[in-house]
Design goal:
By secondary structure, this protein is of the alpha+beta class. Among the domains are: 82 residues, no CATH class; 48 residues, no CATH class; 161 residues, 2-Layer Sandwich (Alpha-Beta Plaits).
Length: 512
């Protein structure tokens, strides 16, 4: 019993435990040093042991449990009501805390499940976007026509990315932004917007070649056409640009190698004009913009507007990211289409002048002779030889000679009919096939070409005027009654005669 009392003194507990242990120790001391009888000592000892057993068996665990519960509640930010040591109060407090724990755990579980569902939905949406990107990109890169690329892009944004209000406007040959086969938010037919219209938000965005995300049209100046297309909700606009494959100097044929834009392959010259450009146009601002749209360096090919409509994906900075990546792939697809078209064009055209090359010339001549035999028509051929072209190269350089050949090819295009076939035969020689043309008609065209070339100043930057002349030979085949080689040989003999007849003249070869 003394050992148990000492353990109670050492054990952590409340003050009542210390008092009880002290009472038991005093009882032991009293009976050990008093003159009581052995029977009384045993009786009192049994009573003390019973009392201690009852305390340790029933009272002590309850008090200890209340203390532990109070300490635990304090650790969790709660306390017993009124600091009461009543076990029932402690049990009630614990029950209330456990109920709150159950509610908190249930709420936490719901939040975790909701977060998990959101993550699953986000992953599912990202997977659908990635799948749409893959399918559309693959289809666009396999397309060989620009309209196929645009159709795939619009379908991918509408159906794959679920932006139901997306519309696509393309730039036609006249430089007008046209939205095809769609209606605006009110059901009216979409209108055509000139790309040089500075009042239109759509035209300004296309012209700059940039993108714009906006919560409404009220933030920017706009026209009624813009409102009819975009509505009043949030929208996103972005231009689809073609990658440039030629420099400004190659397109303009200016020959100014010191120009700051000479080596710039992707210069947006329609936005920022070079200050040292040798080609000056004294035109009104609107006419300049029209000329820029018609130029090969005008990169914007289309404008997509992602609008806010019912049952559509929300338009914000995060949701439009897959649209931007898909638009970048569309630009690459357009570049591949341009490369494919350029390869086809390069296979049949001359790289310097853009006219049909020697191989395509013979194929076209063969085709026209076959038609002439079938329909009993005439075919005329002009062989055009530039006079003293070697002297021109020696005097002004080969770069000036290239520019002169390009200009002569432009003059030939201007003089010829739409049905005539103009080709570069080789070197400084050109050929023009005239389907269904009589000898007199061929002679009239040859005289016009001779006059236009002789009157043109080929180097305006050089003091004085620099002129070139041509010698032209003509041969007309009745009902295609000759072969390709014979027709070329006869016309070439006529050109040779014109060259030795004083140059700058026209000779027609005929057979009696």
């Amino acid at each position: 019993m003394k050992i148990s009392a000492l353990q109670m003194l050492k054990a952590p507990g409340r003050k009542s435990d210390l008092v009880m242990a002290g009472v038991l120790i005093l009882i032991f001391i009293f009976f050990e040093f008093s003159d009581r009888t052995i029977g009384d000592a045993v009786e009192h000892t049994v009573v003390a042991v019973g009392f201690l057993w009852i305390y340790l068996r029933y009272v002590k665990p309850s008090d200890y449990a209340v203390d532990r519960l109070a300490d635990t509640l304090r650790e969790h930010g709660s306390a017993l009501p009124g600091n009461s040591a009543d076990p029932l109060s402690a049990a009630e407090a614990v029950k209330n805390r456990l109920d709150r724990y159950a509610v908190e755990l249930s709420e936490q579980s719901r939040e975790q499940q909701a977060a998990k569902d959101r993550r699953v939905e986000d992953l599912s949406k990202a997977h659908r976007d990635l799948l749409t990107h893959h399918k559309c990109t693959k289809k666009m890169l396999q397309s060989f026509r620009i309209d196929e690329v645009f159709e795939t892009l619009l379908s991918g944004v509408r159906d794959g990315l679920e932006f139901r209000g997306a519309i696509l406007g393309t730039v036609d040959r006249d430089g007008v932004l046209t939205f095809h086969d769609d209606t605006d938010l009110e059901g009216r037919k979409l209108t055509r917007i000139p790309s040089w219209n500075e009042r239109s938000l759509l035209a300004r965005t296309l012209w700059g070649g940039n993108s714009l995300i906006c919560q409404g049209l009220d933030e920017h100046p706009h026209t009624a056409e813009d409102l009819g297309l975009l509505g009043t909700g949030p929208f996103y606009l972005f231009s689809i640009l073609r990658k440039q494959s030629a420099t400004c100097a190659e397109i303009k044929s200016c020959g100014n190698v010191d120009c700051s834009a000479y080596l710039s392959a992707e210069a947006r010259c329609w936005v920022e004009h070079s200050q040292d450009c040798s080609i000056k146009f004294e035109l009104p601002a609107e006419e300049k913009r029209k000329a820029c749209v018609a130029c090969e360096l005008f990169a914007p090919a289309a404008l997509m507007a992602v609008r806010t409509v019912p049952d559509s994906r929300k338009v914000d900075r995060d949701s439009i990211v897959p649209v931007v990546t898909l638009a970048n792939e569309a630009a690459m697809a357009l570049h591949l289409v341009d490369m494919h078209e350029n390869l086809q064009r390069m296979s049949i055209t001359d790289g310097l002048t853009g006219l049909f090359n020697h191989r395509e010339f013979y194929q076209q001549l063969h085709r026209e002779l076959e038609r002439a035999r079938r329909y009993r028509h005439t075919v005329s051929l002009l062989i055009i030889d530039v006079d003293d072209f070697k002297l021109f190269n020696d005097r002004f350089g080969h770069l000036a000679g290239d520019l002169a050949l390009r200009k002569i090819s432009d003059l030939l295009r201007q003089c010829a009919r739409a049905t005539d076939i103009v080709a570069r035969y080789g070197g400084e020689e050109f050929a023009v096939i005239l389907p269904e043309s009589t000898a007199s008609g061929a002679l009239m065209l040859a005289e016009r070409i001779k006059t236009e070339v002789a009157n043109h100043n080929f180097l305006p930057q050089v003091p004085g005027e620099v002129h070139l002349t041509v010698s032209i030979g003509i041969y007309t085949a009745e009902e295609g009654a000759v072969t390709e080689d014979q027709l070329v040989s006869y016309a070439d003999e006529a050109a040779y005669s014109a060259k030795h007849s004083g140059k700058n003249c026209v000779v027609m070869k005929t057979h009696a």
